Amino acid sequence: MPRTANQKTKLLYVMEALLRESDEEHPLSMEDLLCFLAEKGIRAERKSVYSDIETLQAFGLDVHGTRGRTAGYYVGEREFELPEIKLLIDSVQSSKFITERKTMQLIKKLAGLTSVHEAALMKRQLFVKNRIKSMNESIYYNVDAIHQAIAEDRQIEFRYYSYTVTKEKKFRRNGRPYRVSPLALSWAEENYYLIAYEGEAAKIKHFRVDKMDGIRVTEKFREGQKLLKETDMGEYARKNFSMFGGEEQVVTLRFSSRMIGVVIDTFGKDVAVSSLDEDHFQIRATVAVSPQFFGWLFGLDGEAAIVAPREVKEKFLAQMERVRQGC
């Protein structure tokens, strides 16, 4: 058979067909592969396609052959296995800081890592509509700028906003920009946060990335390096419930025994637990005393109590009274 145009790309098209169209349940027959090549304007002999498959196997592509009625070829192990892709897609779907449009784009790219047949099955399981999603498309540029600043050891500037009751942006500090030394990005409570040192306040703060506007990497080197190095990001996030700050204090808490799983999930396995009786235990932990901490306690529906210090108990009672009275 005479050679046709695109012969140099034939091997690549064979690989594309196998990666895109095949899986264990849907092997491609030799006829399927020849038809796929014909659609690309390539006429090929069976012998040359067999040779291409051997070349791809030698290259490391996990191509398997089947016999019988469904005789053909398929790609077995891929760079990402199907459960891993599903896990990534679930993470993207549930991420509140990713916009709906970008969510669909990312899912499409992730689904492209498997066969069209498996991708079709995953699409039937998608639930993106009506989820609460960010409206800020610039979050991706924000994240890129923050990573650049950390890599280059530079400070960043940005404006920070919240929303009014008319759903309009209202910039904090009358639009005066923040200048901070970025330390890390943290994903908590379905949102993305920047943890940074603010020289003006001389302390570490956190900011919702989707509410940062006009990020600019400056020429100034990062400040607060000693404090930055001493900060344990995991510990910081654990102490600051829901990423809202408060005064750190050592608090003694009493729980009913059935709350041990909740306590370990919140404070980690290293938390010191003292058994009080058959039905109760006690812990001492450093927490950020804040409305979010009190809200967490209240959500345990009487299964937890503040033992000490007294001032924290009084703050909790005052918070409950403010809630009772309303705005």
Task: Supply database-style keywords.
single chain, alpha+beta, Arc Repressor Mutant, subunit A, SH3 type barrels, four-stranded antiparallel β-sheet
Quick recap:
With 327 residues, the protein is an alpha+beta fold. The chain has helices spanning 10-21, 30-39, 46-59, 82-94, 100-111, 116-123, 139-152, 225-230, 233-239, 260-267, 291-298, 310-325; strands at 63-66, 72-75, 154-163, 169-171, 178-188, 191-198, 203-208, 212-221, 247-256, 273-277, 280-289, 304-308. The protein folds into 4 domains: 7-75, Arc Repressor Mutant, subunit A (Orthogonal Bundle), CATH 1.10.10.10; 82-123, no CATH class; 139-231, SH3 type barrels (Roll); 241-325, Alpha-Beta Plaits, CATH 3.30.70.
Textual characterization of the structure:
- With 327 residues, the protein is α+β, with helices and mostly antiparallel strands.
- The protein folds into four domains: 7-75, Winged helix-like DNA-binding domain superfamily/Winged helix DNA-binding domain (Arc Repressor Mutant, subunit A), CATH 1.10.10; 82-123, no CATH class; 139-231, SH3 type barrels (Roll), CATH 2.30.30; 241-325, Alpha-Beta Plaits, CATH 3.30.70.
- Helix content is 39%, strand content 26%.
- The protein contains twelve helices and twelve strands.
- The protein has helices at residues 10-21, 30-39, 46-59, 82-94, 100-111, 116-123, 139-152, 225-230, 233-239, 260-267, 291-298, 310-325, and strands at residues 63-66, 72-75, 154-163, 169-171, 178-188, 191-198, 203-208, 212-221, 247-256, 273-277, 280-289, 304-308.
- Strands 3, 4, 5, 6, 7 and 8 form a six-stranded antiparallel beta sheet that branches. Strands 10-11-9-12 form a four-stranded antiparallel beta sheet.
- A hairpin with a 2-residue loop joins strand 10 and strand 11 (280-289).
- It is elongated and about 85 Å long.
